Amino acid sequence: MSYNLLKGKRGIVFGALNENSIAWKVAERAVEEGAVITLSNTPVAVRMGQVDELAKKVNAEVIAADATRVEDLEVVFSTSMDVLGGPVDFVLHSIGMSPNVRKKRTYDDLDYSLLEKTLDISAISFHKMLQVAKKMGAIADYGSVVALTYVAAQRTLFGYNDMADAKAMLESIARSFGYIYGREHHVRINCISQSPTQTTAGSGIKGFDSLMDFANRMSPLGNATADECADYCITLFSDLTRKVTMQTLFHDGGFSSMGMSLRAMDQYEKSFDKYRDENGNIIYG
Length: 285
Ligand SMILES: NC(=O)c1ccc[n+]([C@@H]2O[C@H](COP(=O)([O-])OP(=O)(O)OC[C@H]3O[C@@H](n4cnc5c(N)ncnc54)[C@H](O)[C@@H]3O)[C@@H](O)[C@H]2O)c1
Known about the structure:
Helix content is 45%, strand content 15%. It has helices at residues 22-32, 43-48, 51-58, 70-84, 99-102, 112-136, 163-185, 200-203, 208-218, 226-237, 262-270, and strands at 10-14, 36-41, 61-64, 88-93, 139-149, 188-194, 248-251.
């Protein structure tokens, strides 16, 4: 259902790879809500992914760019302003990748040159995006910028590895740049901390299926889907949230405020079944 929340707005959506991508859903919802947009992803993703299919569907130009390269980002913002007819009103940063996770390096055996890549792709690219946009006057006053993050920035979760450090930095950039961009141009910058979601990036995390199940059992409202995340992004791009900035906003069904739920405890106790005697007492020996 459309509420015309983004009628007349222009935006850039970074990070749509395939129809599971959170950015894919955001692009579809933004256009449904009346926005005109451009799409951006790496040259490889544009070649190998399904971005062109999405572009046709939402009538958007695709601008290939590696978000770690300032020159590429300059092209994304200048082309977007040309194509869309002026500075943009919203930007989605939906980019994340850890070469250490890909190469199965554990957190106590990181390759440091790969760590630099993780941070550059998943966090510093956000700073580069904001700095380029600000210098070019590419985001209109009262614009809104959203980046996607994960609760592992605050709490340690098995397997999230150096992405946890990247997300902590990403959230810090949202605060530090949010102050400056807000003060000078009323541009707001927020992070949405999303539930584990079945996407290409998500599935790279060790034990992802169990993590999703655990998070779902722990969350009173259950895991938030990519479609629901897109809905939340739309509210942040809309004029209904003009005083929300520099926040990490949890979109996780309540997971981040939980300690233990009945549903999770119930599942947890099942794992002790084989260690019970005939009276139901747990045998630890
Ligand atoms: N899936 C989850 O469980 C989950 C949970 C919380 C937050 N997030 C975050 O959501 C965001 C989107 O991920 P997703 O789950 O939709 O997966 P996805 O794999 O569909 O999207 C990740 C995107 O990052 C792009 N990317 C990688 N390197 C890049 C670079 N150098 N320049 C530009 N783009 C680059 C990829 O091409 C891809 O489109 C990420 O920031 C991710 O960390 C995901």
